[in-house]
Amino acid sequence: MSKPGKRRLDQVLVERGLVESRARAQALIMAGHVYSETRRLDKAGQQVAPDLAIEIKGQEHPWVSRGGLKLAHGLDQFQIDPTGLTCLDVGASTGGFSDVLLSHGAGKVYAVDVGHGQLAWKLRQDDRVVV
User: Fold this and answer.
1) Are the C-beta atoms of residues 19 and 118 closer than 8 Å to each other?
2) From CA 6, how far away is CA 37, in angstroms rounded?
3) E strands of the chain, at which residues?
4) Is residue 2 very low, low, confident or very high in pLDDT (cuts 50, 70, 90)?
5) Which domains does the chain possess?
6) Is pLDDT larger for residue 61 or for residue 44?
7) Whether the Cβ atoms of residue 83 and residue 128 lie closer than 8 Å to each other
8) Contact, 125 vs 97, CB < 8 A?
9) Beta strand pairing status for 47-48 and 108-112?
């Protein structure tokens, strides 16, 4: 049960705009990147004061999910240039692959998934993404 005035750490990160989703907040928390001053905050469900000083240190990647790391590496390793191409992200989830494709110049990305409402907000707002 939550304490009066306190909120879940993952929710606070989203509300402050430090991350795009609770899933991303949870991943950063588990990876040990969320701190209050010098203390590492390591539980997504931890109840914290809404005004607690929180910072994210050393994010491991710029993509909306870790899936983006795999594709970014693959594009570089195999020298694939998606510039101007129409691409398909099957099993898009939060859109890590879509995010990388767009950042590498893809003209359009069709993001397909059986889940609903998982795609990162910044991708849902991008005219080059078709959900």
Assistant:
1) no
2) 18
3) 7-8, 34-36, 39-40, 47-48, 55-56, 86-90, 108-112, 129-130
4) low
5) 7-56 (3.10.290.10), 67-130 (3.40.50.150)
6) 44
7) no
8) no
9) unpaired
